[in-house]
């Protein structure tokens, strides 16, 4: 089911071409047993990691800003399932889930959150600024919308080099109103750059509902004036995300230029750890959890199809919790960076 009610979204059109597929309740990838189990494990890793990060923040081990991805796990996991080696990922500051989905170590991510030497940015970047050249992950960016132009630049580099790699550029419904987004759209459309703009619409940006902040609330159509096609996608169902990702990746690899995927998703926690989220009711959050939770959907499917037993799923959860517990122990015991690190990695 779609996570929010919208007008009919089954057959939207852009100036570029008609959008015939419905990824908001109609078109799903047909997962095998292994694909469902992998999706379950990856989403559960993100969920348990973020829960632990929230605990460590409350205990004072993590300082500064901390934006949790709980509730949105299906988006990044489904997108990653459609990629190949060499494809790039860049996102904003709600980024821990993207790092884990890209294969970056839980130890490295958690240690960066606590500012330790073993962190992926040597303890100097914190929650919003981690990178991995090896995993083709280009951040983690704290400035709202800044990653959109950078992700467009990654796509330009791919086109310049003549490869078939695709840039996945994530941003939220709040960032979708930033001016540099549309400068990027124009450039990407003009030069047919291989970039998928993934708008993670969790409804509330930093705390204001999209209906109060956006004149056009169908974000999949934000590229219409640039002839960029777009889809709305049920971002709470990993199968719908995977199906849309396959379509978008093929669009880019075949030289058709940019495409927009609006992921209709929902964050269970506040914008950041300091946000009490009083702009919505507890009943609304509970309804989303009980009716649309991305992990519970997969869990129910695995049990219904007898692809896994309750005991097997409990073992997966235990294994994931062990990984997360290990990362938390490491992040609390690893030494802090030496003072000399203040002068490294600085461009003059």
From TrEMBL:
Residues 42-339 form the Dehydrogenase E1 component domain. Its cofactor is thiamine diphosphate. CDD domains: TPP_E1_PDC_ADC_BCADC. The keyword Oxidoreductase applies. It comes from the Bacteria. Its EC number is 1.2.4.1. It holds the Pfam family E1_dh. Keywords: Oxidoreductase, Pyruvate, Thiamine pyrophosphate. InterPro entries: DH_E1, PDH_E1_Alpha_Subunit, Pyrv_DH_E1_asu_subgrp-y, THDP-binding. It catalyses: N(6)-[(R)-lipoyl]-L-lysyl-[protein] + pyruvate + H(+) = N(6)-[(R)-S(8)-acetyldihydrolipoyl]-L-lysyl-[protein] + CO2. Heterodimer of an alpha and a beta chain. The pyruvate dehydrogenase complex catalyzes the overall conversion of pyruvate to acetyl-CoA and CO(2). It contains multiple copies of three enzymatic components: pyruvate dehydrogenase (E1), dihydrolipoamide acetyltransferase (E2) and lipoamide dehydrogenase (E3). PANTHER family: PYRUVATE DEHYDROGENASE E1 COMPONENT SUBUNIT ALPHA, PYRUVATE DEHYDROGENASE E1 COMPONENT, ALPHA SUBUNIT BACTERIAL AND ORGANELLAR. This is Pyruvate dehydrogenase E1 component subunit alpha. It comes from Mycoplana rhizolycopersici. The lineage of its organism: Bacteria, Pseudomonadati, Pseudomonadota, Alphaproteobacteria, Hyphomicrobiales. The gene is pdhA.
């Amino acid at each position: 089911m779609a996570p929010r009610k919208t007008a009919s979204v089954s057959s939207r059109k852009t100036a570029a071409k008609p959008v015939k597929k419905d990824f908001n309740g109609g078109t799903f990838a047909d997962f095998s047993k292994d694909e469902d189990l992998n999706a379950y494990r990856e989403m559960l890793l993100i969920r348990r990691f973020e829960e632990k990060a929230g605990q460590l923040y409350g205990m004072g081990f993590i300082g500064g800003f901390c934006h949790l991805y709980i509730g949105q796990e299906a988006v990044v996991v489904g997108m990653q399932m459609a990629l190949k080696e060499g494809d790039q990922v860049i996102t904003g500051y709600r980024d821990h889930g993207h790092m884990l989905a890209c294969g970056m170590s839980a130890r490295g991510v958690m240690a960066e959150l606590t500012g330790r030497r073993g962190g992926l940015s040597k303890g100097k970047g914190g929650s919003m600024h981690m990178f991995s050249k090896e995993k083709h992950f280009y951040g983690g960016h704290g400035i709202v919308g800044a990653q959109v132009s950078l992700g467009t630049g990654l796509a330009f580099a791919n086109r310049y080099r003549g490869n078939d790699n695709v840039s996945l550029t994530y941003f939220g419904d709040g960032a979708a109103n930033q001016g540099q987004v549309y400068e990027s759209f124009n450039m990407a459309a003009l030069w047919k750059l291989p970039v998928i703009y993934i708008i993670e619409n969790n409804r509330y940006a930093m705390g204001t509902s999209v209906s109060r902040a956006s004149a056009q609330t169908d974000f999949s159509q934000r590229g219409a004036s640039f002839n960029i096609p777009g889809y709305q996608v049920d971002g709470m169902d990993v199968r719908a995300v995977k199906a849309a990702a396959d379509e978008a990746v093929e669009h880019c690899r075949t030289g058709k230029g940019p495409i927009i995927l609006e992921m209709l998703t929902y964050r269970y926690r506040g914008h950041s750890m300091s946000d009490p989220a009083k702009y919505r009711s507890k009943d609304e959050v509970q309804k989303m959890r009980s009716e649309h939770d991305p992990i519970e959907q997969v869990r129910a499917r695995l049990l219904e199809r007898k692809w896994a037993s309750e005991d097997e799923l409990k073992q997966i959860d235990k294994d994931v919790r062990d990984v997360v517990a290990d990362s938390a122990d490491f992040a609390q015991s690893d030494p802090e960076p030496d003072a000399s690190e203040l002068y490294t990695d600085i461009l003059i």
